Structure prediction request, 153 residues.
Amino acid sequence: MECPAAIPGRKCIPSERLEITTQIKYTMHTTTPLKTLIVDPDPRIHEAYAYFFNTYRDYALAGIYRSAEEALSGCESDPPDFILMETRLAGMTGVKGICEFRKKDPEARIIMVSADNEFNTIKKAFKNGAVGYLAKPVTRERLKDALDAIRFE
Prediction:
């Protein structure tokens, strides 16, 4: 179909298709950032996470906790979209924390984070429902890549 007032030879986009395309573009750029909860006992790393999430457009920091118990009680009313959890925590371990978060939300997307690359710990994390594992040190780019990989899987 030729456009009556357009450049000769240029095709018109039917108005219905143009409207749908515009809606898709608008929707893609106005999504609400996905809430991410951090569970890590090291306060020095908390500052790095806060910085990382300030630079992300698609992800928001929902809270930072030093223990799995604090995180479980802190997110009861508003569950996060993602959870990043250190394996070595005081009290409840990160692997046990996975189980507890899964009891509350079977669809919880939990990424384990640790400087410990112990095979048995990683295996236990995945057996208990972790969807990813990041070795420390975590960089802004690696964290975003991990979140994106799980988000779009």
Remarks:
- The longest strand covers residues 59-65.
- The radius of gyration is 21 Å.
- Residues 1-7, 10-30 have pLDDT under 50 and may be disordered.
